[in-house]
Amino acid sequence: MLVGVSVLAISLSVLVYYYPPTSWAFWPLTMAVPRDVSANKSPTRNQSEPKDKTVSAEAEPDDHKDKDHSLPKATITQTVTPDPDIELSPQTTPKANTLGIESQQPVPTFSLESQDSSDEEDEDETPPSFPAANSAQRTSANSSLMGPPLAINRTQPPASRLMAPPPRIIPSNLRELPTSTNSLRIPSTGPLPNRSPPRSNGLGLPPAPIKTPNARGKVLLSPGHSPLDWASLLKSGKNLSGVSSLMRVTPSQLKHNSGRKGRAAWSSYQGKVYNITPYIPFHPGGEGEIRRAAGKDGSKLFMEVHPWVNWENMLGECLVGIMVAENDGLIVAEGSLEDMD
Ligand code: HEM
Predict the structure, then answer these.
(1) Would the pTM of this model clear 0.90, i.e. be above it?
(2) What ipTM was estimated for this complex?
(3) Last residue within a domain, chosen from 110, 128, 161
(4) Which burial class, exposed, middle or buried, applies to 99 when counting CB atoms under 10 A from its CB (0-12, 13-18, 19+)?
(5) Which residue's alpha carbon is nearest to atom 6 within ligand 1?
(6) Which of 271, 240, 275, 237 lies closest to 256, judged by CA?
(7) Domain count, the chain
(8) Closest by alpha carbon to 302, among 288, 290, 320, 312?
(9) What are the backbone angles phi and psi of residue 109, rounded to the nearest 5°?
(10) Which of 27, 146, 280, 295 could form a disulfide with 258 if both were Cys (CB 3.0 to 4.6 A apart)?
């Protein structure tokens, strides 16, 4: 008995030595895999496979096959791709996808091509029409959302197609035209303009005239003395100041050059003395107005009438000098002023 057990143990040891336990699980599978699977595309190996626990766990159930066949045929094309791993030696470690024999079922692929008979016509290389024949744009053209195509009458001029027709004249809306005698009369009804009594000052005197913005008439300048003519004279380079160089002007000197008795007209504006003699005929406000400032400081008069006028630009070439105290001034020879005239 003891000897028998020993022999059995030794034989088992030898068996385990040559066939390690790691290879035990694949014995039935390697023995069952056919040598040439490519020649037999029908997956019938499962029938010969033993009901080993490792293999049967990866086999797909039958109801799964039924589910694949229930897919719509119109959108699925089935392709069979032979697994190249099948050609390997059965002694190698089997791949997972080869064990699932049912995975030899064709893999469904989706395609956008339609299954009707027009597939062959789509291969035509002529460009498709726009909009496409079966587009929603064409189909909606017949619906109520889209009107019929414009029918342009080529016989009419373009203006008549774009403009709205003239309004219809209804006789009841027309007024009666005034006759020649009635049009000159003051209407007897309705509010009348300027019918209020004339304004009185309460003293019996005639009412004061109503001032309007244009009540004061514009000064008519002599020909050749427009503002543009003055501007061109400023650019002419002519000596308009009457002096050879800037000078210090005393109050007595300013008063002396009053523009009377053949003298030049000087006027001071904010400490600067200008020879306004050449500008007098160009003054838009008239010669009399600007002469009021001759021989004295005209800043106040100037600012009262037109503070917006830039006299420094307009009289720049007429600058004589600056105002100084009486004892600081230099007398300018009168001949220099006569040269300007
Ligand atoms: C020398 C310096 C002066 C210069 C450069 C000058 C220039 C001018 C200019 C450019 C205008 C036209 C203004 C406009 O149309 O808006 C004007 C108008 C006038 N200026 Fe002078 N002016 C000067 C001195 C004076 C003085 C001293 C007076 C008198 C107080 C005066 C009285 C007037 C008047 C009454 C008008 C008319 C304003 C109007 O039409 O509404 N200006 N002046």
Answers:
(1) no
(2) 0.92
(3) 110
(4) middle
(5) 283
(6) 275
(7) 2
(8) 290
(9) -125, 145
(10) 295
Query: Is the distance from CB of 264 to CB of 250 less than 8 angstroms?
Result: no
* Predicted confidence (pLDDT) per residue in 260-311, tens digit: 999 999 999 999 999 999 999 999 999 999 999 999 999 999 999 999 999 9
Mutation choice for ligand 1 from 272, 290, 304, CB with most ligand atoms inside 8 A: 290
- Helix ranges restricted to H, 153-310: 158-162, 227-234, 251-256, 287-291, 299-305
Q: Answer with the one of 89, 110, 131 that is the final residue of a domain.
A: 110
Distance 299 CA to ligand 1 centre (A): 12
Which range of 1-10, 213-222, 302-311 scores highest in mean pLDDT? It is 302-311
Residue 62 lies inside a defined structural domain of this protein: yes
Q: Ligand 1 centre and the CA of 274: distance in Å?
A: 15
Question: Residue 222 Cα, ligand 1 centroid: separation in angstroms?
Answer: 16
Residue 121 lies in a domain: no
Taking CB atoms and a 6 Å cutoff, what residues make up the pocket around ligand 1? 267, 276, 279, 283-285, 289-290, 292-293, 298, 301-302, 305-306, 309, 311, 314-315
What is the residue range of 274's domain?
A: 227-340
